[in-house]
Write a structure and sequence with these properties.
Layout: H1 2-7, E1 12-15, H2 29-42, E2 45-49, H3 64-67, E3 73-78, E4 90-93, H4 96-110, H5 115-126, H6 128-156, E5 162-163, E6 170-173, H7 180-188, E7 195-196, E8 211-214, H8 220-252
Parallel strand pairs: 1-2, 2-3
Antiparallel strand pairs: 3-4, 5-6, 6-8, 7-8
Helix pairs in contact: 6-8, 7-8
Amino acid sequence: MEEVFKAGDIKFFYTMPRFQNPTGYSYNEKQKREILRLAGKYGVYITEDDYLADLELKERADSLYAMGEKERIIYIRSFSKTLLPGLRLGMAIIPDPLKKEFTIYKQSIDLNTPVLTQGALEIYLKSSMYKSHVVRTKKFYKHKMDVLRKACELTFQDNIIYHIPPTGIYAFIQTPSNITEKIVNRLSKQNILLNSIKSSFLDGFPVSEGIRLCVCNCEDDDLLRAVKLIKEEIEKLIKGEIEKVNGYKSKII
C-alpha cells in the first residue's frame, strides 16, 4: 500500500474494513493502525465503507473512523444489508473541508433524500425494534457461516484454500488458475449461483482467482450441497487440465 501511495497521486483510499465484499476478510487492529499511519503520512483521505458494522461480534472491533483522525476519514454506512434493500438509504459522515462539494454533487444526482423515508427510519432506529432486529440478524448470519465453515472443513480438508468469516454475508473459496468461470457457469446450471471475484479488481492491478459465496436466502442444506458440488467441479476441471497437458506432451514426444 505504501508503494502505491508513494508512487501515485492518490487522493482517496476506499476500503471495507470488516466482512469485505467479495472475500469476507476483515482488518485486524494492527492493519487498521498501519492504514491510518500511511494515509496520514501521504495525505490520503480514507473512505470507509462500514456496511456490515451491525453484524460485528467483537465488542472492541473499532472502525477506522473511531480510531483515526476524523478530518481525514469519510465514514459511510448502509441499511440495505441489515435492514431492507429496498429502503435505499444510507448515511455518511463527511469531513468539514469536503461537505460543500459533497452536498453539491449529491444534489446534482437526486436533489434530496425523501423526507418520508428518513422519518420512517428515524422512528425505527429510536425504537427497540431495530435493536431486536439486529440481534436476530447477527444470530442468523453467524449460524449460516458456522454451517458453511463446517461444510468446508469436512469437504475440502487441506487441499482447497477458503475463508469463512465468523459472520457476515460473503465467504471466499480460492480456485486454481483459469477454471473459476467454468465452475461458476457449470454450477449455475444446477441452480447454484456463484460469482468470480475477478470483477472486483481494478484494471492494472494483480487479479486473484476465487469464488464469492453469499449466504443470503440459503437454507443449511443448500450450503452443504453447494460446497460438495464446488469440490466436485474443481476436481473434475483440474483432472481435465492435467489430461489436456499430458496429451499435449505426448503429441510433442
